[in-house]
Structures are given as structure tokens and as C-alpha cells.
Specification:
By secondary structure, the protein is mainly α. Helices cover 85% and strands 0% of the residues.
């Protein structure tokens, strides 16, 4: 039930906003928490919705930070590999490459 509501609300947000980003998941978490708790009253539903949105916001935030870290690590590795290749060419051929 939870997964179905979350998927439905997230897919609806993607369709409405026409973009795929973390906001869709955050709104999906809020909507899911709200709908699942609505039988307990509006205040309880609002609290559960806010908790669901914050929970998904934390998850999405960690994912964004992790993705940025991976990109930086990849760029640093590529730069190191390029520098090693330049040094190897200089040793092997006796000239400095223009790369």
C-alpha cells in the first residue's frame, strides 16, 4: 500500500512538473504519509505527511551529496591519469606534450 501510494504520487508529480528531481520524491513522501494517516484526523495526517516529506528529503539530500562526491572523485582520478600519461610521454619520447 505504502509503495503504491508513493509511486503513484511521485509519478504524478513527474507528469505535472515535467522534470525528474528530488522534489518529486519529497512531495511523494508527504502525500503518502498524509493519505495513510488521514483516518486519524487532519492534524495526525498533516504530522505524518510532514514526517514523510522530511524523511524523503533527508534521503534525497544524502543521495545528492553522494553523487556530487562521486563526480569530484572521478574528475580527480581522470586528472591524475592525464598527468601520469603526460609524464610517461615525456620520459619515453623526450618532449613535453601539448595536451
Amino acid at each position: 500500500m505504502w509503495a503504491g501510494l508513493f509511486s503513484l504520487s511521485t509519478c504524478c508529480m513527474v507528469y505535472i512538473r515535467q522534470r525528474e528531481d528530488p522534489i518529486n520524491s519529497i512531495v511523494g513522501g508527504f502525500t503518502t504519509g498524509f493519505i495513510l494517516a488521514v483516518r486519524g484526523g487532519f492534524r495526525r495526517a498533516l504530522g505524518s505527511g510532514i514526517f514523510g516529506g522530511v524523511f524523503l528529503g533527508v534521503i534525497e539530500g544524502v543521495m545528492v551529496i553522494h553523487t556530487q562526491y562521486q563526480k569530484r572523485a572521478s574528475i580527480v582520478k581522470e586528472n591524475k591519469d592525464l598527468e601520469e600519461m603526460k609524464k610517461e610521454m615525456q620520459r619515453a619520447y623526450g618532449f613535453k606534450p601539448s595536451i
